[in-house]
Design a protein that fits this description.
Radius of gyration: 18 Å
Number of strands: 8
Oligomer: single chain
CATH topology of the domain at 9-133 and 157-184 and 235-243: Rossmann fold
Length: about 250
C-alpha cells in the first residue's frame, strides 16, 4: 500500500489537530486495567502522547520513519517501525488497540487478524477519525471550496471513508456506543495553510500546480483580516469501538 505520509512528519506534528482528552478518558474507562495501549498508524504521536497519561505503557507503531522521528516523546512511550498488518508486539499483550485517522489506509482483514492476536481477552479496539473541520467566520466558505472543489479529486479513494465517518468501514465487532465529541484548535492564517499543506490531496495537487497553496493563501488573506488573528477550526470526532473478543 502507498504510504502517503512517508515525508512531512515535521509539518504533520506542527499542524495536525490533537484529540480531546474526554475521548481518552472514555476509552481508558472501558478497559479492565490500563496497562498497555497500542497506537497503530500513530504518525507523530498526537494520540499516543495522550494515551501515555492514562496507560502504564504505550507503543506507537507506524510505517513511516519520518513520522516517528518527529513524534512526541514521553518516558512510557515506545515508538516502533512496523505495519498494521504485521504488528511488532507480543500476542495477548494489549489492553487497548487504537488506530486514529489511519484505519482507512489499512488492509483491514489482515489488521483485524493481528488485533485478535495481540489483544488480551478483555481488550478494546477503537478506530477513531475526524472529519473535515468548519472554520469560523467568512473564510469558511473559501476553505470548504478548497476541499470540495479544488482538492477533492486529488484525494485517494480511501478518503471517502473519512467523509462518511467510517459508517461504511468493515468492523466485525459488536460496537460500543460513545459520546459525540468535537475537537477545536485556534489557528492563524499561516497555521491553516500549514494544515492544508499536510493533506495528501494537496501534495498531489502541487505536483500539477506548484503555486496552488500560494494562491489560496493570498485569497484567504483578503477575507481573514489581521493575519495573526486566530480563528477556530472544529473537527467532528467519530469512533468505532468494541471489545475484540466480546
Amino acid at each position: 500500500m502507498k504510504n502517503h505520509f512517508e515525508t512531512g512528519g515535521s509539518d504533520y506534528s506542527k499542524y495536525r489537530p490533537n484529540y480531546p482528552n474526554e475521548l481518552i478518558k472514555q476509552l481508558s474507562s472501558l478497559v479492565n486495567k490500563p496497562s498497555t495501549a497500542l497506537d497503530i498508524g500513530c504518525g507523530t504521536g498526537q494520540l499516543t502522547a495522550l494515551l501515555a497519561d492514562h496507560f502504564e505503557t504505550v507503543i506507537g507503531v507506524d510505517s513511516s520513519e519520518n513520522q516517528l522521528v518527529n513524534a512526541e516523546f514521553k518516558p512510557n512511550i515506545t515508538y516502533t517501525l512496523g505495519s498494521a498488518e504485521n504488528i511488532p508486539t507480543e500476542s495477548n499483550s494489549a489492553d487497548l488497540i487504537v488506530a486514529a485517522q489511519a484505519a482507512h489506509w489499512f488492509d483491514l482483514s489482515a489488521f483485524y487478524e493481528e488485533v485478535r492476536r495481540v489483544a488480551k481477552p478483555s481488550a478494546i479496539i477503537a478506530l477513531i477519525g475526524y472529519g473535515l473541520p468548519t472554520l469560523t467566520g467568512i473564510p469558511n466558505a473559501m476553505f470548504q471550496k478548497a476541499y470540495w472543489l479544488d482538492l477533492r479529486q486529488y484525494w485517494p479513494p480511501e478518503r471517502q471513508l473519512i467523509e462518511l465517518g467510517y459508517s461504511t468501514l468493515d468492523f466485525p465487532f459488536h460496537t460500543i456506543e460513545m459520546d459525540e465529541l468535537t475537537n477545536e484548535k485556534r489557528v492563524t492564517l499561516d497555521e491553516l495553510i500549514g494544515y492544508i499543506g499536510t493533506w495528501s490531496a494537496t501534495k498531489r495537487k502541487l505536483e500539477e500546480d506548484a503555486h496552488y497553496l500560494t494562491r489560496l493563501h493570498e485569497a484567504l488573506r483578503a477575507v481573514w483580516g489581521n493575519e495573526e488573528k486566530q480563528r477556530a477550526l472544529q473537527w467532528p470526532i467519530f469512533a468505532k469501538v468494541a471489545k475484540v473478543k466480546g
